[in-house]
Amino acid sequence: MTKVALLLRKDALILRRSPLLLGLLVAYPLLIALLVGLVAGYANSKPRVALVDEDHLPRIVSVGGHEFNVDKTINRVSKDVKLVRLSRAEAQRELRSGKVVAVLTVPAGFVATLQGMVMSPNLEVQTARGIISSRVDEQVQALVFGLNRQLQTAYINTDLGYVRLIMQGGRGSFLGREFTVLGLGRAERLLRNTPGPQAERLREFIRDARIALAQTGNALRATAHPIELKRVKARGRSWALSADVQAYALGLTISFLALVLAAGSLAAERDENVVGRLARGLVTLGQLVWAKVLLAAVVALALGLGVSLVFGAIIQIGNVTGGEPWGRLPLLAVGLLLAGGALGAVGALLGALAREARTASLVALLVVLPIVFLGLVPQEVVPAAGWISDALPFVHAVRFFSAALFDTSPWSTVAREALWLCGLGALFGVLARIGTRRLLA
Amino acid sequence: MSAGAPLLAARGVAKRFGRNSALDPTDFELQPSEAVALVGPNGAGKSTLLALLAGALEPSAGTVVSREGANIGWSPQRAAQYGRLSPRENLELFARLEGEQQAAEAADRLVREFELPDATAAGDLSVGNRQRLNLAIALLGKPEALLLDEPTAALDPEQRGRLWERLDAQRSAGVALVFVTQQPDEVERHAQRVVALRDGAVTFAGPVAEYDALSLVG
To answer: I need a labelling partner for B55 at 20 to 30 A (CA). Which of A38, A49, A183, B114 fits?
Structure first.
């Protein structure tokens, strides 16, 4: 057995004898992955929006002959926000304290303007300052869009009533004024017995107008919805089982594990006072670093495959389509080894710099979160985050896992990211080897 | 190196930690079967010289050479062993790293010889047992010389007596000894030569009898 293998076996034995540490190392990143998932899932949650009713909305509002139950209508269209009725003063106070993210005000005269159907009534929206205000704007716009869709039907039906009146004639009202209309049908009948070319031209116009007005309903509906979005039901992975979530969960879990383990175990050699004994020709410092890199790679492989098997089982049991949970495991295993090794080299560097196991573990924990979050920041949003992230193994590990598990043709991505991981592993490994001299002091 | 050459020799060896000099350029020789005591106050450079002779530290200047093929055992003042491994596992691991062919047998033999409890992790052993394990590890590979840094510092008189019995047995078998001590009686009983250091420099090197005389004069 080689000396590196002897050290690796020793570290594995020590790890097995520290079940609490091992449990924490496994559970902690999974917990963080879950929390990150929940925070990410906030995008789908309902922000609290205050509804200030200054028009004293009645329970039932009648628009164009349609009756609307106000509360039911609001509930139906406010799927993405939680509306709470508040007074203006309460709403302003809660907006300032952040208890509501926006205030939607129904001004006095809103219902009267709505029922007049000539002018568009206004709703006033006031959002909190901060990074989520744009998202709140979108959700309030979605709410108003939902209300408009409900009202459009009533408006169209009212407009069609006027069109019917023009076509058939009869009594109608507009802005409270009653009137009687002859109608195109009756006009045509009156002209039927009138001779002459001018009467013939009028009859022709009436026929054309009736044909054209018969299409008014479809034209109005098309005007209201130039593009209609149809939702097609599809089978596929839910958000929790999506490719990105699985790849990030794997990356995050092994990043924590590899960094903390390699940093802690290298610094522990000094805590145990054995570095001097090993350095007396028993083991080179390079072999010592290599043993820690291998330890991180092997543990990352074991844990990563465990997480993937759980994902795969859920997908299999749930009969979820999309991705190949089993066929790509060998490719994933290669990625886990490379990523674990590269992250282990970063951990070994931290361990060499920190020199004490407790400090090294703390430093590794402090370092791993920025590494992971840098990888989560879209490069299009903050280019600098992308550049820094490219110089660290996490993001390359995630890309490798995502391609290995889900791409139809993963080879180019996998090869590129494997090269990145090997290069970064070698770079950090050399730096760790240089830094390990500090352990002898 | 010829047969009459020293077993272990330091030529102008020095050590600096950053700006601080731990040991000025120093010469030292150890002949086969000889026993040398390193003495001096705390911070004099005794442990540094011993670690340099053992190869556990890289010298900032000078060289350390040992006779070709000679195995040198080293026992630092603070136990150097894995706390979560048992004494047998520690011994077997270091034996394998030393390249011992019969590593398991060597570990068994030393566990019995040093009466080490094997059901306990090394980190849970008493100070005396940890020191015995430390010495047992130094004896792996049948060394021609033992470098011991205050081997009896944490031991009670009875444990100290038993440790010196073992070391005397090693000396009888021809093993050379370099030990750091603060105990004048250990110098007198177990050393032939004394090297005294102060502030990183050798202040005396010679037979025990002369060192005593100088001490009296000083």
So the answer is: B114
